[in-house]
Amino acid sequence: MTATTNTHLGSLCFVLHTHLPWVAHHGAWPVGEEWLHQAWAQSYSRVFALLDRLGAQGHRDLVTIGITPVLAAQLDDRYCLRSQHEWLADWQVRASGLAGMRDPHRREAGQREYRRATAALELFEHEWRHGGSPVVRKLADAGVVEILGGSLSHTFTPDLSDDWAGATLTAGLDDARLRLGSTPRGIWTPECAYRPGLAEVFASADVDHLMLDGPTLLSAGATTDTPWLLADTDVRVVGRDLPLAYRVWSPRRGYPGGRWYRDFHTYDHEWGMKIHRVTSRITPPERKAPYDPDRAAQAVLRDARDFVTAVRNHLRDQQRRNPHRPGLAVVAYDTELFGHWWHEGPEWLEEVLRLLPEAGIAPRTLSSALDHHDVAGRIHPGPGSWGSGKDFRVWSSPQTQDIRAAQGAATERVRHVLDRKRSTDHLTRDAAHDQLLTSLLLGLASDWVFMVSKDSAADYARARVQGHLADVEEIAESIEAGRSRDATARWRAIADIDRPWGSLDARAFAD
Predict the structure, then answer these.
(1) Are 279 and 263 contacting, i.e. CB atoms less than 8 angstroms apart?
(2) The CATH number of domain 11-386 is 3.20.110.10
(3) Could you tell me whether strands 361-363 and 378-379 are parallel, antiparallel, or unpaired per DSSP bridges?
(4) β-sheet bridge partners, residue 67
(5) Given the DSSP bridges, would you call strands 236-239 and 228-230 parallel, antiparallel or unpaired?
(6) Could you confirm whether 334 is annotated as catalytic?
(7) CA 468 from chain center: how many Å?
(8) Which residues pair with 361 in a beta bridge?
């Protein structure tokens, strides 16, 4: 954390996965743009603010943050910036309404929310008004965080052919370079998914390192307490430590379910505010107790100490097994957990980052950890992900067969169009072809199949896939029929809604 810190036990790497699919212009409430507004206000702004605060105090190499190109595009988009500003102002207005209620609990909650909304609005106007890239670049350039790159639209990479997996990854890394001024050395592979053959794809894109889920490494005979070389490449891989990660959040338990934390699911329906605490796992919403921020703050301190103690014991166990090797542990979470899903999450994260050095543990980025920990050998993992079952079942479920078939057919259609372009006039870039590819990639986002498999806003997900693939069909038909005027009119109309990446060049996918 600092040059003088005594961190003799080893390293802990926090890896935060920062991602939302493209939601701009595609619905607002209850699904759509509201996801972006809440995550931006409650998670992204707060997490980056705490990292900026720690950075100003001299701390470096704190966490690794993967930011997907599709989210980065939205954080820089003028429409999204304007909408976010309006959403924050609306939050402030709603909070003032709640603060005017006679009920003391609701009135106090409203006053508290008004202060939070006002501070969030001021932070946005001061730090985020020019987009997310300057905020991220400031921390990355200062060495406070490491930024991971990734594939352009968060497509489930194992489903892609090697050439397209490489093209989407290279395009995503290029996008990161344009926004941040440098190309990330490491990547976040969507859904932590891996299949044999992807190591060579990563190596061809000059990827230095990545993280996979622990079971993917364990099933290959590796461990999660050291880096490894991936397949027959020089790409280094580390594994997420599930026992440690699950202390914070798992499908069944974790700190956010503590009784004193603010309840995520229970709203004051008149003003749209969350003003109750978890109370218990079985308490019905109408019987949830009022939120008490002081008791929640005490819970943050208790759970932060509990986590650091668990990390310390874990690294000590590693040292007992390998006394000549410093310990290493990697934990990873969706960034949206910290603040959006778990209201007190940013405070917990900041407290943990402060406590770790006192316990003899260095918080490190993946790059920093790899500089301090030698690889243990070479591994050849089989297929794996961080989804249910640690395999591909979520993205190959029977209820998504029709979606995946449609996505496959659209992909082949676009391949045919791009190959035809290459054979006739590959030297000339064409905006219609660029938009054709953009619409396809938006329709291939792994989120849509996940949402249908999990029955989470499944109708919205299906509609999004159908809409993007319909755009693909219309543009492709115009191009193939030689109706250049129709193709131009159609791609321009679509681009007004779905144009996250102005630099995307479809010719790269036909090489």
Answers:
(1) yes
(2) yes
(3) unpaired
(4) 18
(5) antiparallel
(6) yes
(7) 22
(8) 10
Burial (Cβ within 10 Å: 0-12, 13-18, ≥19) of residue 153: buried
Rounded distance between C-alpha atoms, residue 511 and residue 163, angstroms: 9
Residue ranges covered by each domain of the chain: 11-386, 395-509
pLDDT of residue 400 exceeding 60: yes
Spatial contact of 157 and 149, defined as CB atoms under 8 Å apart: no
Q: What is the dihedral of CA 180, 150, 161, 474, to 10 degrees?
A: -70
Q: What is the pLDDT of residue 423?
A: 85
Fold of 395-509: immunoglobulin/albumin-binding domain-like (1.20.1430)
Catalytic residue among 61, 191, 213, 347: 191
User: What 3 state SS string does 301-336 have?
Assistant: HHHHHHHHHHHHHHHHHHHHHCCCCCEEEEEEEEHH
* Spatial separation of the C-alpha atoms in residues 316 and 206, rounded to whole Å: 35
Q: How many residues does the chain have?
A: 511
Paired with 66 in beta bridges are: 17, 148
Catalytic residue among 34, 334, 391, 486: 334
CB 235 within 8 A of CB 423: no
441-451: average pLDDT: 98
Q: Any idea what DSSP says for residue 154?
A: -
Q: If we measure between CA atoms, which residue out of 232, 188, 229 comes closest to residue 386?
A: 188
Average pLDDT (1-24) is: 83
Q: Which helix (H) or strand (E) holds 477?
A: helix 458-480
- Return the number of other C-beta atoms located less than 10 Å from residue 338's C-beta: 28
191 is catalytic: yes
Is the Cβ–Cβ distance between 13 and 370 less than 8 Å?
no
Task: List CB contacts of 203: < 8 A, sequence separation 6 or more.
Answer: 233, 234, 235
Give the pLDDT of residue 422: 86
Pick the closest to residue 494 from 417, 439, 413, 429 (CA basis): 439
The secondary structure element, H or E, covering residue 282 is: none
Tens of pLDDT along 255-310? 999 999 999 999 998 999 999 999 998 999 999 999 999 999 999 999 999 999 99
Q: Which residues contact 365 (CB under 8 A, 6 or more apart)?
A: 13, 61, 62, 63, 64, 145, 146
Calpha distance 152→150 (Å, rounded): 6
| Total-model pTM | 0.96
Residue-wise pLDDT tens digits, 157-180? 999 999 999 999 999 999 999 999
